[in-house]
Amino acid sequence: MEAVGIEPYLHVRKASNPIYDPTGKKLTFITDYTGLPQVWELQNETGWPSQASFTEERIIFIKYISGTNQRIFGMDEGVNEKQQLFLLKENGDIVPLTNSPEHIHHYGGNSPDGKWIAWSSNRRHATYFDIYIQNIETLEIRQVFVDDGSYYPVKWSPNGESLLIKKANTNLDNDLGMLQVNTGEVMWLTTHEGEASFDNPQFSGDGKQLYFLTNKDREFTGLASMVLATKEFSWLDESNWDLEELTMSPDKKRLAYTINEGGGSKGVIYHLEDNTKQSWDTPMGVITELTFSPDHSKLAYVFNGPTNPSDIWEVNLESNQTRRLTYVSESPVVQAQLIEPELIKFNSFDGLEVPAFLYKPKNAEGKLPVVVFVHGGPESQIRAVYNPFLQYFLNHGYAVCTPNVRGSTGYGKTYSHLDDVRKRMDSIKDLTSLVEWLKAEGNADPNKIAIMGRSYGGFAVLAAITHYPTIWSAAIDIVGISSFRTFLEKTSPWRRKVREAEYGSIENDGEFFDEIDPIHHVDKITCPLMVLHGANDPRVPIEETEQIVDELKARNHPVTYIRFEDEGHFFVKLKNNITAYTGVAEFLDQYIGKKH
């Protein structure tokens, strides 16, 4: 079968953020069908959807205001992540709510009477997030909680007198508290020792109990409940995998969540009346964004798998039958080419077992060129989802391996900390062990192994080719860190504190940064490098890319650089993704592919 070019893979659209209208007859969602994420609507869950927003910037999320047909949505400018909030009226009019484009706003839901919304913002100080409420009719804004920390409203209490709020201590540690809106007093619910997360909290019908996901005092995230008056804590589901995506039915009788089983998902309905569970069948992939219908008879969700790109599905909770609601990812040209990975495990330099997904092209024979793709985070996980450029590589004869090196989430609390601060380079050593496995077990051509990664994965790329230069034939760094010292000096203030928990601080670990930072080892790079970055990146400043590009150019080393003036940390515009990954494809073809 003739190979398919990169553009058809990038033209595969995705759908997200499904929400039912109050009647349950209309489904609102976000899709990049036009090349930019916008709001669309599907009437009666049949037929072709219609576009409901026509903004010049991406729509980040959309939520209904309870009991109304009005919706709140978020939008930023140039992918700078400084989200502003807007009211989308029933007649299509858009009302700006926050009007502070230099600051970030996190939405926290509406009051039970639909008159107020809650959000947090760093408008007082760039580093800290305070909590505000806003009247959506008068647009009055009230600051209801101020403190030097990162605080976020999660949802209103059923009586409307309190806000459930979250205090983020690190990326992996937080607390929940009840904030009295009128007094500003907080009753903290989850004070704990050590590290623990408390996520996706849901109120019981009477508001006296809270359900949430937590890994308090255990390796994996389970389902727990708490009696608010006494803080009595009970476990409902203690799995040996992380539970995710918890939500509650409108009648307060059922919970829905997913189980992250090695990078794939299993969906679960938990019946609170009799403590029984039901699940439904899906192909290999990941389930996210669970939402019950108003009559609680159905559950909509986003399903994204290697051979089933992101679309919205629905499960009937009586029959347990699923059906696909949107077809925005439909692409006959690409569909027949898509390949599922094999889950493999390899032993690293110290005996640690490391999981990875290995994709091999159809009808593969002999030694193969391989692209090793490293995820960002690093407190993240590569999942079994559709990835356009990985599937393109497969179609063009490359094998692809996506490891979850030490420091990844999804494999327990201990595993996620095996790369912290001074253990940073152990995760890079995992990549060298993976290469040895690929050569011995994965049919890899030892002279055609490339490494690619974005964000923290971009750092991993640069660290790998500077500290272990002889094993790589080509490298692609997307919005990566070239120096932890300069990264921490220049990243957004609200990011610095959070990242220091993972990477260390300049004050305590500056000498270590100087020892490992790729920018200080540019002379060791032997393979050609391609680098891509968005000028509006608030997470990894573009200077991280430009300083290493400048160093390589000064040495006359082969380096290809693509800079996008209208993108940030994520490339969201179709035209830019086509430019980016067409360039990546040509680069790989030149150095490890057909042209090599």
From TrEMBL:
Record SUPFAM superfamilies: alpha/beta-Hydrolases, DPP6 N-terminal domain-like
Gene3D superfamilies xrefs: alpha/beta hydrolase (3.40.50.1820), TolB, C-terminal domain (2.120.10.30)
GO BP terms: proteolysis
Origin: domain of life: Bacteria
Keywords attached to this entry: Aminopeptidase, Hydrolase, Protease, Serine protease
Organism of provenance: Pseudoneobacillus rhizosphaerae
InterPro entries xref list: 6-blade_b-propeller_TolB-like, AB_hydrolase_fold, Peptidase_S9_cat, Peptidase_S9A, WD40
Protein name per Swiss-Prot or TrEMBL: Dipeptidyl aminopeptidase BIII
